[in-house]
Amino acid sequence: MYIHGYGISLDRYSMDIYNICVSICFMGKGVVNMGKHIGIIGSRKLPDNFCSHVGEVISCLLAKGCYVNSGGAIGADSYVISALLRMGKSYRGVIYSAWSYFSGFPYSARKDIGEFAKKGGRIDWGTVLPDPTRQEVVAGLLGRNRRLVENSDALIAYLYGESRGTMYTIKEAIKKGIPIVVFACDPISSRLYQDLDRQVGSQIKILKIGAQSTPNKLFV
Fold first, then answer.
1. Using CB atoms within 10 A as the burial measure, which of 8, 25, 69, 120 is most buried?
2. Angle CA(181)–CA(185)–CA(188) in degrees, nearest 5?
3. Is residue 5 part of a domain?
4. What is the pLDDT of residue 197?
5. pLDDT tens across 79-123, in order?
6. How far, in Å, CA of 93 to CA of 62, rounded?
7. Which residues contact 102 (CB under 8 A, 6 or more apart)?
8. Cα separation of 132 and 37, whole Å?
9. Does 1 map to a domain?
10. Burial, 15: exposed, middle or buried (Cβ in 10 Å; 0-12, 13-18, 19+)?
11. Is position 6 within any domain?
12. Which residues lie across from 183 on neighbouring strands?
């Protein structure tokens, strides 16, 4: 079950973050509870002023006993890992990698991912071998996205700009029929979401955030 048209109030940020989890719980008939895995994905270009917003969402999910699935890239993925490290909860996270080896991760993400693994975080390794062709990389990344969805009970997505990989993952989640919450973080992503909604004929819960906003400047 998907819900469309939800907005975030300007003066109730903390409650709205809480309501995300409540809404997922409603959509998924109890998805947000002990031991469930929630995928959090998003654009590699998501600005760093969204980092604290991602952290608030993760904090709420962890408080409900959930685990967090991530893709191990930069942007939104890196905000997920840094939040888990900051909270001392790496063991509650899983990174789904496209790569079969550590140096396949983006250079700027390796330090945090290495620390994440040392502190109990799990890495589900992919199939891409060293010195891959472009075709092998693309296939590996798409396969990673599918594995993340297959192992998630719900999906939270941060759209920013074209976000092609994020859109692909959302479509995979639609096929699986799991609850989805989409944050449209700029005008381009809002239009992409509307196009997707028309294409699939499904309703997805959408929350709009200003392109350059900080979490306390959310708008409906």
1. 69
2. 110
3. no
4. 62
5. 999 999 999 999 999 999 999 999 999 999 999 999 999 999 999
6. 10
7. 110, 113, 114
8. 30
9. no
10. exposed
11. no
12. 158, 207
Structure tokens at 129: 């071998």
Q: How far are the Cα atoms of 52, 133, 134, 144, 166 from residue 138, in angstroms, in the given order?
A: 30, 9, 6, 10, 14
User: What sign does the CA torsion over 110, 158, 155, 216 have?
Assistant: positive
Q: For residues 42 and 45, what is the distance between their CA atoms, to the nearest angstrom?
A: 8
DSSP code of residue 91: G
How would you label 154-178 residue by residue, b for 16+ Cβ within 10 Å and e otherwise? bbbbbbbbebebbbbbbbbbbeeeb
What's the structural domain count of the chain?
1
Owner of token pair 């997920």: 80
Q: Which regions of the chain are under pLDDT 50? A: 1-15, 26, 203, 210-220
What are residue 98's DSSP bridge partners? none
Token pair belonging to 138: 């693309």
CATH code, domain carrying 139 = 3.40.50.450
Residue 30, judged by CB atoms within 10 A of its CB (0-12, 13-18, 19+), counts as exposed
Provide the residue range defining the domain that includes 31.
13-217
> Among residues of the chain, what percentage have pLDDT more than 70?
72
Tell me how far the alpha carbon of residue 98 is from its chain's centroid: 16
Can you tell me which residue has the tokens 């979401």? 193
- Side-chain-side CA neighbours of residue 99 (13 Å): 14
Rg of the chain over Cα atoms, rounded to whole angstroms, equals 16
